Amino acid sequence: MEIIASKLTFSFSVHVTEVMEKNMTALSNLTKGINQDHVIITESLLEGGYGNPIKFIEASFTKTTTVNKIIKYISSRLSDEDKEYLGSEFENRFDSKRSTFFLRFDKNAIYADKLLITDSSNIIKLAIKLRAFTKQANYKSFLIESGIII
Q1: 3-class SS at 106?
Q2: Class assignment of domain 3-145?
Q3: For the chain, N or C: smaller number of CB within 10 Å?
Q4: Whole-angstrom distance, CA of residue 28 vs CA of residue 30
């Protein structure tokens, strides 16, 4: 095994007009069947443009078996069109300095238990941190084999 997914971090904003529980349900819809004891959730309080409070939530998973289960679940829910789009956008979505691949899911679709890739602002972002055990690692091939991209 030359490459592993070592960490998943979901992040999203919760505005004062949104319901926190609804956002946490959306997170659960992305991690169905995963023991929530394996998640580290951090919450930061930010200030919006008009002084409105905004909660910024980060949920991180680092246990290898959990990370792999979530990747498998997400890849099974992505449409082939979204996988092709992500594959064509690989260079724009992969941070080679941090070995991290980024996806943005439509939050409203997640509320309805659907998974759609989007570039809009009302999203849950997923950062997939990869770790290579060789200098010649092919991260794109790993993501193809994982079913995240085509």
Answers
A1: strand
A2: alpha beta
A3: N
A4: 5
Whether the pTM exceeds 0.85: the reply is yes
Closest CA to 125 of 1, 33, 13: 13
Identify the H or E element spanning 15: strand 3-15
Distances (CA, A) of 10 to 49, 64, 128, 136, 138: 23, 16, 9, 28, 24
State the alpha helices, DSSP H only, in 1-79. Answer: 20-30, 64-77
Do 143 and 49 contact (CB within 8 A), yes or no? no
Three-state secondary structure call for residue 25: helix
For the chain, the residue count is: 150
pLDDT tens column, 115-143: 999 998 899 999 999 999 988 899 999 99
